[in-house]
Structure formats: C-alpha cells, structure tokens
Amino acid sequence: MILAILGLSLAMCDSNTENTSKDHEIADSTKTNKTTVMTDTVQKTDEEWKKILTPEQYRVLRQKGTERPFTGEYENNYEPGTYVCAACGQELFKSDTKFDAGCGWPSFYREAAKGHIIEKIDLSLGMKRIEIICSKCGGHLGHVFDDGPQPTGLRYCVNSVSLKFIPGKR
User: Fold this and answer.
1) pTM over 0.90
2) Which of 13, 85, 134, 157 is catalytic?
3) What is the pLDDT of residues 132-147, one digit of tens each?
4) CB under 8 A, 24+ apart: contacts of 89-92
5) How many CA atoms lie within 13 A of 125 on its CB side?
6) Lower Cβ count inside 10 Å, N or C end of the chain?
C-alpha cells in the first residue's frame, strides 16, 4: 500500500520531466558539470555523516532516498524564513518562492542563490528526471521539473528531511 502511494506520488511529481528553460543548466554524468560549485565544500566520511544526521536524513541526503509524500515537516509550512541544507547549513530556498504543488513535498520555484544547487540527470526508477544536490556538501535534495509557476516555470520538489527552516524575514 505504501509503495503504491509512493509510486503514485512520484508519478504526480514526475508528470513533466523535460526541463526546457534556457538559463537552466543540467549536469550530465557523462559531461562536465556546468553549474558553478561553491569552493568551500564540506567533505565527510559516511561514519561522520551518520554521527551528525538522523537515520532518515542520512538515507535521503547521502543515499538518495525519498521521504514518503505528505509526511514531511515543511510540506505545509508557509512562515517567512529561509530553508537551508540539513547537512551543512547552506542557504537553498527562500520562503517567498515556496508554493503548494499538491505533490506531497515542499516545492519552490527558485533556488536562493545561483550555484547553491547542482542539477544532475537521474535515470533511476526507469524515468529521466533532474536530481538536485546541495553544492556545498553533495546532499541529495530531491528533483526539479519544468511544470512550476512563473516567473521561472520550475518546481524544485524537495524532501523536507533534507532541509532545516530558519524563521525570519522573507
């Protein structure tokens, strides 16, 4: 039952998997990544990550897992503030770019700063998607799709467990 719900939710979030935005660069595993990567990267061993992350955070951020839809802490959070990477604290999204996509995961139409998120083609689960990764620590965040609202037309579909929310001004 849970697998059926997850499959249905992934299908809803994956309804449109081709990104067409011209300023939206994607890293191909067979090509050099064109996205600017921060120079102050965080590198830890698996054992070090396991000591600082919860088991669920480790599964999602380090092993590219997905939390169950409609269960995440931030899915329905619309308070003003900033969303940062749960592993390294890098700023990822501002609350004023969050919207309700109805897919079960927090969704944003723009990253907080260019270069804070790396995009990589993901061919897992028998479909083509664009994975989003924290550029500072390499943590898996979720996926991005081109069915979001204007002004970008993008939908960053993010696992709540990969985020921490810092309340404050938008």
Assistant:
1) no
2) 157
3) 999 999 999 999 999 9
4) 89/164, 90/38, 90/116, 90/134, 90/135, 90/136, 90/137, 91/116, 92/116, 92/117, 92/134, 92/141, 92/158, 92/163
5) 18
6) N
Q: Any idea which residue has 């990969």 for tokens? A: 162
94: left (phi over 0), alpha (psi -120 to 50) or beta: beta
Taking CA atoms, 141 is separated from 40, 63, 87, 168, 169, in Å, by: 19, 11, 10, 22, 23
> What do you get for the CA distance between the two ends of the chain, in Å?
39
Residue 140 identity (one-letter amino acid): H
* Domains identified in the chain and CATH numbers: 2-16+23-167 (2.170.150.20)
